[in-house]
Specification:
By secondary structure, the chain is of the alpha/beta class. Helices cover 34% and strands 20% of the residues. The longest helix has 15 residues, at 58-72.
């Protein structure tokens, strides 16, 4: 049984959410669970020759894109987490820290028998403390 579900989204790739979002919503309704969404963006490193606020709009921009995806999928009330760093590390840290019971992630495109499981998905599946639901394209 799941009480908190974490859906990973990449706003630049609709395969990451087209099938996964409806499935995550269905699982949340079935279990009566909270659904949250997360997108991980590359870490913005502050170099000495860059202004102090360099990259400050990146998180807001991505949050707006993810919220637009959720609104279009009838999930406007889903909380959004924007993390910076390595995708699999940040997903695993957030899931563990906030006590998620299930992670929903889409697999890369591929046909039987060669479904593609990218490195981030493979690492999340191998190292997650909770159930990981892989949504095939």
């Amino acid at each position: 049984m799941a009480t908190k579900i974490l859906l990973t989204i990449d706003h630049t790739d609709d395969r990451s959410w087209k099938k996964a979002l409806p499935l995550a919503l269905e699982q949340a309704r079935f279990y009566g669970a909270e659904l949250h969404a997360v997108e991980v963006i590359p870490e913005i490193i502050q170099l000495p020759n860059l202004p102090a606020n360099y990259g400050s709009g990146a998180q807001d921009f991505v949050r707006g894109k993810v919220q637009a995806i959720l609104e279009a999928g009838n999930a406007a009330d889903v909380p959004v987490h924007i993390e910076q760093g390595s995708v699999y590390r940040e997903v695993l840290k957030l899931a563990h820290k906030d006590g998620f019971d299930m992670i929903v992630m889409a697999s890369a495109k591929g046909d039987f028998p060669n479904y593609e499981i990218g490195p981030n998905l493979a690492r999340v599946v191998r190292n997650a403390h909770c159930t990981v639901m892989v949504v095939r394209d």
